[in-house]
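Collaborator request, handled under Task 6.
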Amino acid sequence: MTAFGMTHPADASSEAYAPLVARLSGQRILVVGDVMLDEFFWGRASRIAPEAPVPVVEIERESYVLGGAANVAANIRALGGLPFVVGVVGDDLAAEHLRDTLLRWHLEWHGLVVDANRPTTRKTRVMVNAHQMARFDRESRQPIPADIETTLMRKVDAWLPEVSAVAISDYDKGVLTPRFLRHVLTHARQRGLPVALDPKPVRFASYQPVTVVTPNHHEAALIAQMPVTDEASLEAASHRLSAMLGRAHVLITRGEAGMTLYEAPGHIHHIPATAREVYDVTGAGDTVLATLILGLSAGLTLHQAAHLANRAAGIVVGKLGTATVRPEELLAGQALAATPAGR
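Structure tokens returned to the collaborator:
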């Protein structure tokens, strides 16, 4: 028995996962949403500042990695897929760093639309002795204007015929307006493409038509407007979320308790966590979304794709900073030569 009393099958061996992981390679995925730049300052602190009781951090280097929807794309690429990213950046240095980082991943950046009236979303983390000391966010949450929406729609329309699935990453930064979101979801459904979406509670009812959503357990309880404390309340919340989206599937990520997949009434599966050591949960939701949509694109069942996503999440939380997972790590079931972000 596991959390909430649900049973689960034993974790599959690497040999059982091998044919599933192999099918992820070459899948073409459209990634839409809030692209970000994750900036890291790495240093050490050995003294306290004379003017205030704070440590003095001597910065030794800085690095840049992809965040948000861009990190979803990086995870897809790391697993052998071919992602195409559509999002918004500002006319600033952070946008240049983001484009350069996309190029290092051999990813297209022509899906990025410039809005000169907003900054590129940037999260700056100060890392001291392998621990995060502070984070500074530079962003705008204002909805994008109509002309930017129209340009994004044209980007989506150009790439939809080239892909076999869509991932939508909503960080509530103003890009996924109701009009733009409706356009993406409706056109994806018309083409019969599976869509996986990492949601925000503020606009949950707008996420339809969609194949599967991936809220965490806190978001699920908030959206369902009910406490989730046991098996019965978890299933009730999942059912409510599914009904709100026209019977969409729901994959609830639950941290150290693993994941819960709701496919239909009476069909709920608990997938136990696989992490051996949780080092940093930054970007773990991006990894889940990327692995899940790759699996669906490759023709895996939702249950198989969710198991792979759970395995990938268990690996990425064992790494420091925003990170990705490689196929050989999925097969080994653990991080291989894990290094801090940007190294």
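The cover message to the collaborator said: "The CA atoms of residues 44 and 128 lie 5 Å apart. The longest strand covers residues 35-48. Please let us know whether this matches your experimental observations."
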